[in-house]
Design goal:
The protein is built from ten helices and six strands. It is an alpha+beta fold. It has two domains: about 140 residues, no CATH class; about 80 residues, Phosphorylase Kinase, domain 1 (2-Layer Sandwich), CATH 3.30.200.20. Strands 1-5-6-4-3-2 form a six-stranded mixed beta sheet, with helices on one face. InterPro entries: Kinase-like_dom_sf (IPR011009), Prot_kinase_dom (IPR000719), Ser-Thr/Tyr_kinase_cat_dom (IPR001245). Keywords: ATP-binding, Kinase, Nucleotide-binding, Serine/threonine-protein kinase, Transferase. This is Protein kinase domain-containing protein.
Length: about 280
């Protein structure tokens, strides 16, 4: 939501290190951009709540944005309640302006997945400067979670096995801490292929991702790019997911190219689709 108001990625002017991670845990959030509808700011801040249980669900976000876009039962604006009417008018009257935030990213800003070592000496040194016992207790209470086991027997042949020999013109287009994304051809069709690093022996991270991709295969997830196949690199023995290729690139690139022309109505439609995809 914040990137739709700023055009830039959050915390782009900071090093993405342990210090930033700790600052976010203690409440640091991106700067609110001027001339943004207050109802949008309020929803965004709720999504930033430090307590995950107090954040709105995807369904709640979807319903709120849906009302902003479509109005309840397509009523005329004069026939809806005053609060919603006020919210809708905020979007209608909100200007589309460029911001004065720093566009150039910090050299240590990183937006691909990577691990931070939360047992390092550096972290210990940081915590020694603060109330370490209280802060560690806070982290333990807020962020403990358990993983549900994956039921292998529930798998149906929605995601098919594809022979690696069918892949042609494999070209790397992105890389993160846990995977590499390629553009390739299979039977003449352009596809995206994600190699899951260190997945020679499927671990919980690989299985969780596979479970998510499998669940998102249902037709109701029309706004999520689906995985249609799986294969294995014959050299590294790592698993690879075969997915639909997005010609327009990712959301960040889209905003970079079109920010000045994107109306609030268009922004809300995109957010509505994203929220729908998370359900």
């Amino acid at each position: 939501m914040w990137e739709f108001t700023s055009k830039i990625l959050p915390f782009n002017d900071k090093a993405h290190d342990l210090q930033l991670a700790l600052s976010i845990c203690k409440g640091e959030r991106p700067e609110i951009i001027e001339n943004i509808p207050q109802c949008y700011i309020d929803l965004m801040k709720k999504c930033w709540d430090e307590d995950p249980l107090k954040r709105p669900s995807s369904k709640e976000v979807l319903n709120i944005i849906e009302n902003w876009i479509f109005r309840p039962e397509n009523k005329k604006i004069e026939d809806i309640n005053e609060e919603l009417k006020s919210n809708i008018m905020e979007f209608i009257n909100a200007p589309i302006k460029h911001n004065n935030l720093i566009v150039k990213s910090h050299p240590k800003a990183c937006y691909t997945s990577h691990l931070l070592d939360f047992t390092s000496e550096e972290l210990n040194e940081i915590l020694e400067l603060e109330d370490s016992q209280g802060f560690l207790k806070f982290l333990e209470q807020k962020y403990q979670s358990s993983q549900n086991e994956f039921d292998y027997h529930s798998i149906k042949p929605k995601i098919k096995w594809v022979s690696y020999s069918q892949i042609k013109n494999l070209k790397k287009i992105a890389e993160g801490g846990f995977g590499i994304v390629y553009k390739a051809l299979i039977n003449g069709d352009i596809v995206a292929i994600k190699k899951v690093l260190y997945s020679q022996e499927p671990n919980k991270y690989f299985l969780n991702e596979f479970k998510s991709l499998y669940q998102c295969y249902d037709s109701k997830f029309e706004y999520i790019i689906k995985c249609h196949g799986i294969t294995k690199d014959p050299i590294t023995k790592e698993f690879m997911f075969i997915m639909k290729y997005a010609n327009g690139g990712d959301l960040h690139n889209y905003l970079q190219k079109n920010f000045a022309e994107i109306t609030w109505k268009k922004k809300l439609h995109i957010l509505w689709r994203i929220s729908d995809g998370y359900l």
